[in-house]
Amino acid sequence: MNMMQKQHSPPLPSTPTNRIRQRRRAKSLEVLPDPSKLNGGNLPVHDQNKYRSMWIRTHSSLWMLGGVILILYLGHLYICAMVVVIQILMASELFHLRRRVHEDKQLPGFWLINWYFFFTAMLYVYGRILSQHLVNTVTSDQFFYRLVNSLIKYHMVICYFLYTAGMVWFILTLKKKMYKYQFGQYAWTHMILIVVFTQSSFTVANIFEGIFWFVLPAFLIATNDVAAYFFGFFFGRTPLIKLSPKKTWEGFIGGSIATVVSAFLLANILGQFQWLTCPRKDLSTGWLNCDPGPLFKPEYYCFPIWLPEWIPWKGVSVLPVQWHALCLGLFASIIAPFGGFFASGLKRAFKIKDFGDSIPGHGGFTDRMDCQMVMAIFAYIYFQSFVLPQTNSVEMILDQIVRNLSFEEQERLYMMLENDPWGLWIVIKLEKNSAGRYDG
Amino acid sequence: MQKDTGSGGTSTSSGPTSRFRRRKSSNEDKSPALVLDLRLSSLMEENVHPEDDKAHGSHLLVNDHNKRAHEDRHLPGFRLLNWHFFFTAMLFVYGRILSQRLVNTVTTDKFLYKLVGRFIKYHMVTCYFLYIAGFMWFILTLKKKMYKYQFGQYAWTHMILIVVFTQSSFTGANIFEGIFWFLLPASLIVINDIAAYIFGFFFGKTPLIKLSPKKTWEGFIGASVTTMISALCGLLLGVAMLLANLLGRFQWLTCPRKDLSTGWLHCDPGPLFKPEYFTLPEWFPGWFPWREISILPVQWHALGLGLFASIIAPFGGFFASGFKRAFKIKDFGDSIPGHGGITDRMDCQMVMAVFAYIYHQSFVIPQSLSIEMIMDQILMNLTYEEQRALYMKLGQIIMERQFGES
């Protein structure tokens, strides 16, 4: 893990790699001075230094915004790669937290087990989500198709055996007098991997359904942070929760309203781009053309007649997806902040200031991603339950056919369906019955 | 289910456990997994407290009791939170596994059918919101100076629920595929234990692993061999694997149950349970009375399960031993006289249940998934238009592939 200098004076994100890695930072805390650095609470204080740091942060956040747009432009696979990188950094921060140097010296190679479980979890989770996409990518080559199909068929077993091997390895490395530490590490590893991989796998699944479903929730969280900060800055009076003494009710409510409104508007803007709204069915990187689906086709609502004449617009066109965006915005403003409270509580419980310090002035990746994680999970579940059209039985059976039958069997099935399926089928069944049934 | 922790004594709880013992004997094939859930989850209230660093007391358990009783008084309703998570997990896991069967049970009543259909559609969201509600509740009940304890409890709750529910849901799924797939792995573990004990008793010399000083290599190897033989031929030894042959002939044990009814089952057991006859080669000695043996194909699968049960499942036991040593407890509980608690008995079974489920899903089901079964599905479940649509799509796929090959 990188041990970068934590700077308490105006933080300078120095190198381009830093900037790209920091792309997921909530832009708010980039743009605005961190209140903890102000002398005396939330009151705006006129100070040369603070405005200078504000300018520097604006500068860097603009750079980050550019980086974000670049990666979005490059496409689904690159975004996924970025998610994976961030995930690795988060996991290493969190693994590092509970490690105690003294015990680690007596257990050489123990940290390897953590990363072994990490890669097993990655194989399992991404294998599940991307299996269909992988199959679609290699349909042309027969050899790869067979290979990929059998890998997918036995995917669960493979991952299970890898996990079991890891568990066996763990048990064989148990050392007397270190049991408690080792079991604690084992449990901590599991919790970290579950938390990190659930949300990142859901993020990746959302990305392949359309970059829109990744950008919108992430942006809403950032907007909520910014808006809550601004409202708190100017109007903040009543504290919100004991865990985070800097948050205020005014900031919370103002941020909520701003988030919901911007969700509505942002969905309209983002929904115009096919690059963002089209799902990607395989692992290619080229251009996407598709019929975006009824969600992204504008519907026109006329204003009621009693509106005064001088208003220039006679009606408004709304993409149906904007109503979904409203729900996402509602969640982002009201429930997602609890992810932040949870992280704050966790830090207080273990008496640490930040989860890491890869990002100067802001702590580590986990500090930036805490609300995003809760939002990613919700976005995925929301999408699967309310947006995605139900997979009908035809798709499911087709899936089974493609996955389980060989080419010859598929063709046989096709021919059986071609002719009168019922008639043929009844004949076959009767033949089987007369050939002698098992009677136990 | 409330354990009275105020009694700062040793880890005893007599009241709830006798209730559980009575429930367990009620012989429904669906409930054992559920009851074991409840019992195992009372681990949440057990004396094991992973965050306890002040282990200087003479009796760790007493310190734990007193300390936690003290903390629990400051946090009323904290236990309630644990049970909230427990029931959310139960709803989620069993809802997923039993949803299809629930639908099949209520097909007669139109209103119920719609209700159940809707419930299944929004199942994931419902469970998610229940979980989030619990999450928010947890955060709102965080109390200053108790953060570490509360977060420790939270993590502990999650770990327990995950361990308990994974294996019990897999067990439940296996049961509905045919009681055989639940009974066989369980019996293999029991045979392995007994055989290891007997072999260790008579021949045990070299210790196996530092974690469990009573286990020996002789016991381990003897038990492995016994388990595999039992699994494969079930001739004279392996009583339970005689079952693999006998069991295969009982429809009650081999038929899958497609709904939640409790009546008798009739089905075509499938190719796995039809005996195949192998004639013995000529070089077998003349006095051997049988000229051919009948083997159910399922016995080869039983062999795979037996291999796992003898070699890898004991590591579940080692894990539990190491865990008990780490937290300096003798047993997880004491509901079973002479054996400790239920978790002590179930530690290997848990590992085996997960493996049995994964094995079944990966190797048994695809084998039986043939053209016949898919045609059955197509003809039973799809309307005529959907069949036509399937036909078109399949044709497209085949043509694309042929085009790609040429």
From TrEMBL, chain A:
It is found in: Membrane. GO terms for molecular function: phosphatidate cytidylyltransferase activity. The chain crosses the membrane at residues 62-89, 110-131, 151-174, 186-205, 211-236, 248-270, 323-343. The keyword Cell inner membrane does not apply. Residues 1-25 are annotated as: Disordered. Belongs to the CDS family. GO terms for biological process: CDP-diacylglycerol biosynthetic process. May be involved in the synthesis of minor phospholipids and in modulation of IP3-mediated signal transduction. PROSITE patterns: CDS. Pathway: Lipid metabolism; Phospholipid metabolism; CDP-diacylglycerol biosynthesis; CDP-diacylglycerol from sn-glycerol 3-phosphate: step 3/3. This is Phosphatidate cytidylyltransferase. Requires a divalent cation for activity. InterPro entries: PC_trans, PC_Trfase_euk. Its EC number is 2.7.7.41. It is an enzyme of class 2 (transferase). It catalyses: a 1,2-diacyl-sn-glycero-3-phosphate + CTP + H(+) = a CDP-1,2-diacyl-sn-glycerol + diphosphate. GO terms for cellular component: endoplasmic reticulum membrane. It is a multi-pass membrane protein. It comes from Sesamum angolense. Keywords: Lipid biosynthesis, Lipid metabolism, Membrane, Nucleotidyltransferase, Phospholipid biosynthesis, Phospholipid metabolism, Transferase, Transmembrane, Transmembrane helix. Pfam families: CTP_transf_1 (PF01148). Its cofactor is Mg(2+).
From TrEMBL, chain B:
Keywords: Lipid biosynthesis, Lipid metabolism, Membrane, Nucleotidyltransferase, Phospholipid biosynthesis, Phospholipid metabolism, Transferase, Transmembrane, Transmembrane helix. It catalyses: a 1,2-diacyl-sn-glycero-3-phosphate + CTP + H(+) = a CDP-1,2-diacyl-sn-glycerol + diphosphate. Residues 1-31 are annotated as: Disordered. It is a multi-pass membrane protein. Its EC number is 2.7.7.41. GO terms for molecular function: phosphatidate cytidylyltransferase activity. Pathway: Lipid metabolism; Phospholipid metabolism; CDP-diacylglycerol biosynthesis; CDP-diacylglycerol from sn-glycerol 3-phosphate: step 3/3. Its main location: membrane. Belongs to the CDS family. It comes from Sesamum angolense. Its cofactor is Mg(2+). The chain crosses the membrane at residues 80-99, 119-142, 154-173, 179-199, 220-244, 298-320. One of its GO terms (cellular component) is endoplasmic reticulum membrane. One of its GO terms (biological process) is CDP-diacylglycerol biosynthetic process. It holds the Pfam family CTP_transf_1. It is an enzyme of class 2 (transferase). This is Phosphatidate cytidylyltransferase. InterPro entries: PC_trans, PC_Trfase_euk. May be involved in the synthesis of minor phospholipids and in modulation of IP3-mediated signal transduction. Requires a divalent cation for activity. It is found in: Membrane.
